[in-house]
Design brief:
Organism: Cannabis sativa (Hemp)
Distance between the termini: 54 Å
Helix content: 10-25%
Shape: globular
Protein name: MHD domain-containing protein
Structural class: alpha+beta
Family: Belongs to the adaptor complexes medium subunit family.
InterPro entries: Adaptor_comp_med_subunit (IPR050431), AP2_Mu_C_sf (IPR036168), Clathrin_mu (IPR001392), Clathrin_mu_CS (IPR018240), Longin-like_dom_sf (IPR011012), MHD (IPR028565)
Strand order of the largest sheet: 14-17-12-11-27-25-20-23-22
Radius of gyration: 25 Å
Subcellular location: Endomembrane system
Number of helices: 7
CATH class of the largest domain: Alpha Beta
């Protein structure tokens, strides 16, 4: 057997108490088969060597032994196989191989599969995959060949496999033909730019560039900033005729770190002059991603105070603007998980709404900070009988959104377009939102 072959591709879902029908079969794989700890939602054997389903049992037992399955390592060595996994929307994408191989290749392929399925199905959840099993299998057949990644560009896949819609579902019911496969091979598969459809024509040429950033920050119980960095993406929505050639430059490219590019980007211009030179795919795609590390401040501050005595705990949380970014901060939320020892909670705020969910998660929705007062939440937590003081303190998760600015300081200098007969319309936007923004108490 050659190296770098994937042997098996699996989608796993946490096991529930709901009983599933185990009799459904397609492409020699059983769906929703009950395995201790998990359900196999979808299975795809990719090479002649068949992987026994017991690998799922081993994987799930390993995941449960680690405590939090969401923090599980992406590469795991089992006694018989190497396992590669990512977690998206509660669904585990798992691939395994018998031979050693570059782990980033496997992880990137799983990420691409998750992105393509989310794009095709309009999201990722158990019901969507169950209702579109045939399309999912058709996509996997085209995305990987005998264990090697093959066609992973969404634009080419859309020409080969039509996305699900009401019309196609009605036709499949009326004609009995459930396949969405095209009878002809896309012309772009034989061109030098396989990510772009051939002979694209638009009456109005336009291209939009979005800077989308997520701020990850950790603030300790003393209010000191432990970590603050930004993960950003340059997202492009291109509707250009013919075969355009674009160059995108930044005003301050030196602050970018850990950059990743779409295959359309030519690496030499970036390596020499930090310029993105590329022939874009048609439609929306992620041109590049980056990180900006060691930022000095955050736009918001969150100050929690907890004091406990005699079986009760007083809690007070204040939220305000630390550094005004010059744009409106909205969609502000503060969430925290009530400790298991809390029997009841009585919380209120002077601005926004406070809700305690069934899983004991408290959600304080502030939206926007008013100019005339500082939002604050306060209340009393009642401990279980026999406990005098609170010993497990919650971590507060902060959410926010700022339209029109990139907090990292990244700025686009200019975007030049060539090989176009008409002058295109160019648009630029920026958005910053909270990622893993945590305040410890």
């Amino acid at each position: 057997m050659k190296k770098n072959h994937f042997l098996c591709f699996l989608l796993l879902y946490p096991k529930r108490s709901v009983q599933r029908d185990n009799s459904k079969q397609c492409c020699n794989a059983y769906f929703y088969s009950q395995i201790p700890g998990c359900e196999v939602m979808l299975e795809k054997q990719l090479t002649g060597h068949r992987v026994d389903r017991s690998i799922c049992d081993w994987f799930w037992n390993h995941a449960l032994s680690q405590g939090d399955s969401s923090k599980l390592q992406p590469v795991i060595a089992s006694p018989t196989h190497y396992l590669f996994q990512i977690l998206r929307e509660g669904i585990t994408f798992l691939a395994c191989t018998q031979a050693e191989m570059p782990p980033l290749m496997a992880i990137e392929f799983l990420c691409r599969v998750a992105d393509v399925l989310s794009d095709y199905l309009g999201g990722l959840n158990e019901d969507l995959i169950k209702d579109n099993f045939i399309i999912v299998y058709e996509l996997l057949d085209e995305m990987i060949d005998n264990g090697f990644p093959l066609t992973t560009e969404p634009n080419i896949l859309r020409e080969m496999i039509a996305p699900p819609n009401i019309v196609s579902k009605m036709l499949s019911v009326m004609t009995g033909n459930s396949s969405n496969m095209s009878d002809t091979l896309p012309g772009a598969t034989a061109s030098c730019v396989p990510w772009r459809t051939t002979d694209t024509k638009y009456a109005n040429n336009e291209v939009y560039v979005d800077l989308v950033e997520e701020m990850d920050a950790t603030i300790n119980r003393d209010g000191n900033l432990v970590k603050c960095e930004i993960y950003g993406e340059v997202q492009v929505n291109s509707h250009l005729s013919g075969l355009p050639d674009l160059t995108l430059s930044f005003a301050n490219p030196s602050i970018l770190d850990t950059v990743r590019f779409h295959p359309c980007v030519r690496f030499r211009p970036w390596e020499s002059d930090h310029i993105l030179s590329f022939v874009p795919p048609d439609g929306q795609f992620k041109l590049m991603s980056y990180r900006v590390r060691k930022l000095k401040s955050t736009p918001l501050y969150v100050k929690p105070q907890l004091t406990s005595d005699a079986g009760t705990c007083r809690i007070s949380v204040m939220v305000g603007i630390r550094n005004d970014p010059g744009k409106m901060i909205d969609s502000i939320t503060v969430q925290f998980q009530l400790p298991p020892c809390i029997r009841s909670a009585d919380l209120s705020s002077n601005h926004g709404t406070v809700n305690i969910l069934a899983n004991k998660k408290c959600v304080w929705s502030i939206e926007r900070i008013p100019k005339d007062k500082t939002p604050s939440m306060s209340g009393t937590l009642v401990l279980e009988t026999g406990l005098e003081r609170l010993h497990v303190f919650p971590t507060f998760e902060v959410g926010f959104r700022i339209m029109g600015i990139a907090l990292s300081g990244v700025k686009i200098d200019k975007l030049d377009l060539k090989n176009l007969h008409t002058k295109p319309y160019k648009g630029f936007r920026a958005l910053t939102r909270a990622g893993e923004f945590q305040v410890r108490s």
